[in-house]
Amino acid sequence: MSLSIHLRHDLPDLRLDLSFDAPSGVTVLFGRSGSGKTTVVNAVAGLLRPQTGRVAIDGWELFDTQKNRWLPPHRRRLGYIFQEGRLFPHMTVRQNLYYGRWFAPKRARRENPDKVIEMLGIGHLLDRRPAGLSGGEKQRVAIGRALLASPRLILADEPLAALDDARKAEILPYFERLRDEVSVPILYVTHSAAEVARLATSVVALQDGKAVRHGPASEVMADPSIAPAGVRAVGAVLNVRVREHHADGLTELEAGGARLFLPRIPHQAGEGLRIRIPAQEVILSNKRPEGLSALNVLEGVVETIRAGEGPGAIVSVKTPAGPILARITRRSVAALGLEPGQTCFAVIKTVALAPQDVGGRLTAP
Questions:
Q1: Residue 141 to residue 136: CA distance in whole angstroms
Q2: Most CB contacts within 10 A, which of 29, 216, 242, 352?
Q3: Alpha carbons 270 and 267: distance in angstroms, whole number
Q4: Rounded Cα distance, 155 and 1, in Å
Q5: CATH code (residue 289)
Q6: 119: domain range?
Q7: What are the residue boundaries of the ABC transporter domain, all occurrences included (predicted)?
Q8: pLDDT (0 to 100) of residue 181
Q9: Domain co-membership, 161 together with 271
Q10: Maximum CA extent, the chain
Q11: Considering only CA atoms, which of 279, 178, 210 is closest in space to residue 39?
């Protein structure tokens, strides 16, 4: 399925003016607070009526202002996952899951409830009420309820923002499975670079109501000129494969023939993954380093150097594993004599690769 969004709308503190087409999978709206992410989702959901625009899913129009076409929210066949789950407190988990199916068209494509329950690991919760669930369990039920409503599109508005780190780590794999095993497209709002790297099929970077960049996560997150959530969001997104687990607690990964090590991860040998390497966790050397504790050293060629307004610079290095970004000082750039086309070495501390930056690999481009 494809998603087409064209919107123009004036708010008191924001002028929304954007247009993009997204492929099937997870399309992430990424940007700072106030950039327009939730406004876009509300327009798609029918909670906001834009002054000008069109939204269509595989050509099926939710609205088109030129044609004076407007489907009310209850006829748009959307699944909405909120920050807090918003389950019906007087219903059991089973009743919450099946609630949306009561309103789905009889001819709509329906997901197998048993498959959804198994995928989300909520079979043992079916007879409980929301008051007896943890935050992570509530979000899993909310995902299931949205999916079982036979939606044409799922909207997820910062669904992990209200959870602590442990619960986020619990829920992210379920969104990965949703992306890989279910055909329903997802429009996902976040300001977390880690969520973008792990989940996104494509990314729409928003700034002041405009789509300033749109493309695969590996390209958008590697563009230091975007940095929609600040310079700390800049980083490389690499496709890797688990090579083996070592007895000393490290996992060895293979990426484009290069080897990377990180603390042991719960993935099997041969499994494909995506990892994010934050630019501030990379240091550069113009010679192959010796006598360092760091295990990850990648030889590459400097592609670009972009100086910031302060003392820092982002250096993009092309390596066999993929493009690596390093956030260093302009003084270091000068001291190393770095310039495009020069060979250099990217050094990444093994323990700098955080668990939240390691996730399932996309099954589609």
A1: 9
A2: 29
A3: 9
A4: 15
A5: 2.40.50.100
A6: 3-226
A7: 1-233
A8: 83
A9: no
A10: 69
A11: 210
Residue 231 falls inside a structural domain: no
Residues 304 and 198 in one domain: no
Provide the β-strand partners of residue 329: 312
State the Cα torsion 203-220-209-196 to the nearest 10°: 50
pLDDT on residue 149: 87
**Which CATH number goes with the domain that contains 163?**
3.40.50.300
Q: Report how many domains make up the chain.
A: 2
Last residue of some domain: 195, 226, 257?
226
Distance of CA 186 to the CA centre of its chain: 11
Q: Is residue 365 part of a domain?
A: no
Distance between CA atoms of residues 222 and 236, nearest Å: 5
DSSP state of 256: T
* Coil vs helix vs strand at 260: strand
Residue 38 lies in a domain: yes
The pLDDT tens digits for 315-334 are 999 999 999 999 999 999 99
The mean of the pLDDT values for the chain is 88
Interval 230-267: pLDDT, tens: 566 788 889 899 999 999 999 999 999 999 999 998 88
Residue at 76 is within a domain: yes
Residues 140 and 280 in one domain: no
Same domain, 135 and 210: yes
Q: Which residues contact 333 (CB under 8 A, 6 or more apart)?
A: 305, 307, 313, 315
| Residue 57 half-sphere exposure toward CB, CA atoms < 13 A | 21
Tokens of 282: 């990379």
Same domain assignment for residues 197 and 340: no
Q: Identify the sign of the CA torsion 69, 73, 79, 85.
A: positive
For helices 113-120 and 165-181, angle between their N-to-C axes, nearest 10 degrees: 140
Do 245 and 103 lie in one domain? The reply is no
76 touches 150 (CB < 8 A): no
In contact, 82 and 42? CB cutoff 8 Å: no
- 219 and 303, same domain (yes or no): no
Which tokens sit at 356? 């939240």
The amino acid sitting at 234 is V
DSSP 190-233: E--HHHHHHH-SEEEEEETTEEEEEE-HHHHTT-TTT-TT-GGG
